Design the sequence.
């Protein structure tokens, strides 16, 4: 029934995910492969794209991608557009792989109060996709290795801030003294009491470089089982991020009593829990944010004809 | 002329340093070896001690050590004594290797405002040694992998706080995205302008998990040379530690307008610079703090006879 109007690809550092999207923006099917830009051999992105698409490669639909594929280390660099950035800005900044093989959405850049830049690639598309059918103004968080907190106003990305929470968690467990007595990293399951305890600590004022050491001293003193160190650390880091992001959000547009969580995995559930404990209402965005955002950019750019309205 | 009255050993995780000390506490000679407890094979600490001492092993002087040699992973565990801790408490908590081979100074433990423990091993001896001839009350910092900020009052360690600054610096440069575009880690030389810029950022209020990302975005945007990333990161982390420690110190005994820096290396010089930029007077402790502290504990314990006074 529905024909494929767009091939939309969320192409990141470690993985790539392709979607067949119809003319109304509905997702018809999706495929993924461990073909993030770090996994692509000899810069042969064409071969990687063919492998990802499989028989979809024969479809005549236009192709669009977001994420690290547009970085300096990707296929074709799509230079950052500055905040405030809306769909028009993303559509206007599309980079094109020669031969109409692929259009690539630019990342977005901003500067904080003291002039230090911040950047995102991929999240700009997710957030505009996630909020496309929702409020035109919102605070949103995209949990991950480098979490992004984003202030959206009137359908534009006004400003944002990156928190290296996920990477701190990973490198501290794998390479610091905190991991030496710890159990396996927190997994997909429901976090337990140790997560709640870490969260409580994180949501309070404190010095992060000091508070982190609590994961070791609590374990040394018998106040935390070694197997629970990862969950406590996860709680501390996510809690502190939420605390600090609320201060950031209040200084960047005011209202921070509710926030959208863009993501549908176990990590997003941890963030929703942290927001709740902080007294912030968590709205969970529906799945497929990147595909919907890519469709919205493609339509703005005239790659996909509007079916009406 | 002066006879050896004590063999004093600062025995840490990665290195060990031995001192010959006379009856007045003067250091006659010192030796070091890469025989920290992590380097000792098969738990044969006796062989490691013999290797470290060399011909000093024939001396009949008593032997005393501080540091990780007294931890659960060391030779004989010397359980932590609680704050407030003075020389009497350290002398009373000495653990002894059977056969009078070695007395080991206990570490010190405290709990912060929310009941999370903190611990030190080795620093308690350094600080009481460093301040032995100085003020009976002071704020002190011992820079390192795990920096310690210590409040000393009336010759006792009242309370302290650990900051994982050095370890964060090392693991982020070696294992995170921040190191991927960075030059070699900051070395022994005089830090340059990038250190000052990072310091300025660190001394301001901010969210550490966000501010760290500046090391990447500044480099991406051309605002920081890759070779300068380590110095900027060093400045950010040390500056934030000083900022947070001042808040901690103010909540734990008040006055924080001056601080002793216990250490004599390039790192201590960076801390002295950071204190100065923060408007805190930095007093630099004379070298040999551990040896003097070990001598003071040994004298308290009656291992070394007092020569008078």
Sequence:
């Amino acid at each position: 029934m529905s024909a494929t109007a767009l091939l939309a690809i969320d192409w990141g550092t470690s993985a790539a995910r392709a979607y067949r999207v119809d003319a109304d923006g509905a997702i018809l099917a999706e495929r993924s492969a461990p073909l993030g830009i770090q996994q692509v051999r000899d810069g042969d992105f064409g071969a990687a794209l063919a492998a990802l698409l499989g028989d979809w490669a024969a479809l005549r639909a236009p192709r669009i991608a977001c994420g690290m594929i547009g970085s300096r280390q990707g296929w074709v660099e799509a230079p950052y557009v500055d905040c405030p950035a809306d769909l028009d800005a993303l559509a206007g900044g599309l980079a094109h792989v020669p031969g109409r093989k692929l259009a690539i959405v630019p990342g977005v850049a901003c500067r904080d109060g003291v002039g230090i830049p911040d950047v995102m690639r991929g999240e700009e598309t997710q957030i505009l996709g996630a909020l496309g059918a929702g409020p035109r103004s919102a605070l949103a968080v995209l949990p991950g290795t480098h979490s992004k907190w984003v202030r959206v106003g009137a359908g534009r990305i006004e400003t944002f801030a990156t928190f290296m929470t996920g990477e701190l968690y990973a490198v501290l467990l794998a390479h610091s003294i905190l991991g030496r007595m710890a159990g396996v990293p927190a997994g997909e399951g429901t976090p337990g009491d140790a997560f709640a305890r870490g969260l409580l600590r994180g949501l309070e004022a404190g010095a992060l470089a000091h508070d982190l050491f609590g994961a070791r001293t609590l374990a040394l003193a018998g106040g935390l089982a070694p197997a629970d160190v990862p969950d406590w650390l996860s709680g501390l880091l996510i809690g502190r991020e939420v605390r600090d992001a609320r201060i950031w959000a209040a200084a960047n547009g005011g209202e921070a009593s509710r926030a959208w969580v863009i993501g549908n995995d176990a990590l997003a559930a941890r963030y929703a829990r942290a927001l709740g404990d902080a007294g912030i209402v968590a709205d969970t965005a529906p799945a497929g944010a990147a595909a919907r955002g890519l469709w919205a950019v493609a339509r703005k750019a005239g790659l996909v004809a509007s079916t009406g309205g």
In short: Residues 229-251 of chain A form the longest helix (23 residues). The CA atoms of residues 135 and 155 of chain A lie 8 Å apart. The longest strand of chain A covers residues 156-163. Chain A touches chain B through 42 residues (CB under 8 Å).
